[in-house]
Please model this.
Amino acid sequence: MWFTLERMYGNEVSWCRCPGCGTEAELPAVETVGIAVPCPDCTDPMVPEWTWESAA
Model:
């Protein structure tokens, strides 16, 4: 399962994965710096894999 928040936030997006269950998600990079974002499926913290700037 994956979901996207890219259009709701700024232009910089992080691709994150849950090490517990493997769920993938695009999360706003700037808004989630230093915050343990819980996985929507198992509540383990999501881990950023890479960040990019989206096309606005």
In short: The chain is about 0% helix and 40% strand. The beta strands are 2-4, 12-17, 24-28, 47-53.
